[in-house]
Amino acid sequence: METKLAENIRLFRKQKSLTQEQLAEVLGVTVGAVHKWETRLSTPELNLITEMADFFDVSVDVLLGHEMRDNRQQATVDRLIVYLNTENPEGIEAAEKAMKRFPHAFEVVLYSALICLVVGGKRRDNSLLDRAKELLNESLILLPQNKDQSITEFGIYSTISSALMLQGKFDESVELLKKHNPEGIYGANIGMTLSLMCRKPEEAEKFLAPALVEVTGKMLQSVLGYANVYIARGKFEDAKGMIRWGIDFLEGAKTPGVTGFVDRDSSYLYTLLAFAEFKDGDPSGAKKAMHKAKKLAADFDAAPNFDARSFRWAPADAEFSLHEPFGETALESLGFIVRMFADQDFTAFWEEN
């Protein structure tokens, strides 16, 4: 409970146009006593608080100005989130108190762990980082309570890994991620740590190469999707800028002199660029982009190469490959994309040119 007694004594005294000496005389105390009350150096006896409340014609609650904290579970979690977001070290004490009140509440335990992690990381305090790991592991046990789909066991393992890294336990951090790495979700993280901290470049490459291939695919999907959002909003320059950025990105990922899936993916983006140009009223630009798309697809279909080694950053012993997602050939895939635009005028333009 927090009070504003000192501030209120001063406020109500001034409202009655009294000096500290005059209030002291009314209450039968010294001027020094009133001064100490108003500066929080001391607190008046209960009988004096009651007497002042009567004199100022207010209730004791009003004079105290107390603010009763909401200690229900959700309110407690909300406060912990504020401590976390502001990286406030006072959150450590608040977290420990919260866990005494709600020792088996998933959100309380999780956000307390994250506060320990953030504050411990800034201070390089191993005891706080150990506490963070302890609470994170406890949160895994309590995970069935979780209702937030953005919080997963894999995210918690990743956070434990971060705590280990802050402690300089890089090998242990990597091994933890390796044990919980479905579909290579931690590939980039593992590869970076192996290369940069563990000084194991050969092992790192085995994780980094597929991670780069995957992120390239996600980038392509994101550009295709987001550019279409811009087109739907009539923001054609934004759409074309994003598409060209994606094309440049893919060009940098291509193995020089080798036709492969990167060229095929670029043909998708050129198809979208043609659509953006067409919708922006530039048939000449649309035709140029369309011809580029069709040529890239035709070149790929002439010698289909799904091997990921056509990706510039794949190691020589790469054993993974990619396949055609939208049709049996790259040109068929372009046709599929055009149909997805559901624009009869553009479809006719595509088929006529």
Please, could you describe this protein's structure?
It contains 18 helices and no strands. The protein has three domains: 5-64, lambda repressor-like DNA-binding domains (434 Repressor (Amino-terminal Domain), Orthogonal Bundle); 73-199, Tetratricopeptide repeat domain (Serine Threonine Protein Phosphatase 5, Tetratricopeptide repeat), CATH 1.25.40.10; 208-352, no CATH class. The relative contact order is 0.05. Helix content is 69%, strand content 0%. It has helices at residues 5-15, 20-27, 31-38, 46-56, 60-64, 73-85, 91-101, 106-123, 126-141, 153-166, 170-179, 187-196, 201-232, 236-253, 261-279, 283-302, 330-341, 344-352. With 353 residues, it is mainly alpha-helical. It is elongated and about 105 Å long. It starts with a helix and ends with a helix.
Distance between the termini: 76 Å
Order of helices and strands: HHHHHHHHHHHHHHHHHH
- How many strands, which pairing sense, and closed or not: the largest β-sheet? none
Measured on Cα atoms, how large is the radius of gyration? 33 Å
SS summary, helix count:
18
Uncertain parts: none
Mean pLDDT: 90
